[in-house]
Every structure is written in structure tokens, then in C-alpha cells.
User: What shape does this take?
Amino acid sequence: MEIIDWILVTITGISGFFLGMRKTQKETDSISIQNVASTLNVYQDIIADLKVQIKEMKEKMEQMDKTIHKLQEENKKLNAMIKKNGQ
Assistant: This one.
């Protein structure tokens, strides 16, 4: 009887080990998926913020380009006036 008990205990132990290992692996996979989803949400928020910042920077750059062009034209006119009055 001892051998049968030992065999049953061994089989039960091995079965429990493999079933527990599968359950643990599923739980680990589930946690990994949740972590990836959470990380993805963080990156999406960062990208959205960067898009807004890029849009704002483009608008400022366009405004600065206009100002530079206006100042260059004004500078040309002033230089022409100086040359005209200097002669």
C-alpha cells in the first residue's frame, strides 16, 4: 500500500506543479498585457502633447518669419534713405 500511496502523492504533486505553473504563466501574461496597455496610453498622451507643442512652435515660427521679412524690408528702405540723404 505504501508504494501506491507514494505513487499517488508523486502524481498529485507533479500534476499540481504543472497546473500551478500554467496558472502562474497566464497571470504573468495578463499582467504583461496590462503593463503594455498602460505604457501605450502614456506614450499616446506624450505624442498628443508633442503634437500640440509642434503646432504652437510652427505658428510662432511663421509669425517670426513674417516679422523678419517686415524688418528686412524696413531695413532696406532705411538704408536707401541714408544713402540718398548722404549724397
The chain has one helix and no strands. Helices lie at 2-86.
